[in-house]
# Entry
Amino acid sequence: MSKTRKTVLAVLLVLIALALPLLVNEYVQQILILTITYAMLGLAFAFTLRVGLPRFDIAAWWAIGAYATAMLMWKADMSFWLTIPIGGLVAVLLGYVAFSVLIPRGMMVFLMFGMVLTLAFQQLFGSVQYFGGWGGTLPIPPPSIGSFQFVYKGSLYYLGLVLLSINLLVYWALYNSKIGRAWNAIGSSLTLASSMGIDIVKYRIANTLISNFFVAVAGSYFTACTLVAVPTAFGFGNSVYVMMYAVVGGLSHSLAGPIIGSLVITFIPEYLRVAKEWEPVITGLAIILIIIFMPSGVLGLIDRWRGKPSSPWTRWIRIKRRNRTPTEISE
# Structure
């Protein structure tokens, strides 16, 4: 695709995104708000995957951001806008304490701890009455700028669109920077990256901490939309869903993939609601079929249809799947 066509397509997508709330009802607007939240989480997962660290702890840091906003607004009557960076910094500081110990011990330790951490945070927020218990926090006031309050779904959608755009800009800048090239080298081969003088542990920690910050931002946004933080919203299953956003969208597209994946996975259960008990079955079956018949994701299928060669990132994933050794898996 030529540069001109890419520019025209980008402008068209921006115009569609801006016009969407004017074209759909509040129910669809609510689904779009959830899609934006899940897209931010999926972007963070794809971001950390660049250094060879898939994550099962996304829901834990998502909860940190959500509860930071809820508690600071509830207990300290703080402005929503101040709670966003505070929640992000709390996630970064706690993450640094944990990751500086875990990441040097390899990928499997990192994965297992992520599962435990997610369950532990959910139990903490649910069991301690200071955080509101399992019933959640008390309702908080909606975000506001002067006299304007983000109460309606359309205004919350635009707020999320701004936060998602910031996510995309930061990730794009990092992917195309010197540190981004170092992350790609680590994801391609730990041995090769180490031989080039790259400090693998340091770069991995930096990557996960940046990811933590933006996951917490997604948590703050989620609380702004629901006006309450409830621990059941941040279970381990949500961390698995986040992984699916990136996989279904296409791992070779670190920016567009999670957004497309979140659209697919969010809209499938909403529009295939036959019965509540069948919803997980239908959603799970749809995801399995996508993974089986479109292993490169939705965007990977479009790439093949256009005759576009696979990216180095996709080729690396295929090679690693074929040639991985037990030693590499532990790393």
Summary: The chain has a mean pLDDT of 86. Strands lie at 144-145, 148-149. The radius of gyration is 20 Å.
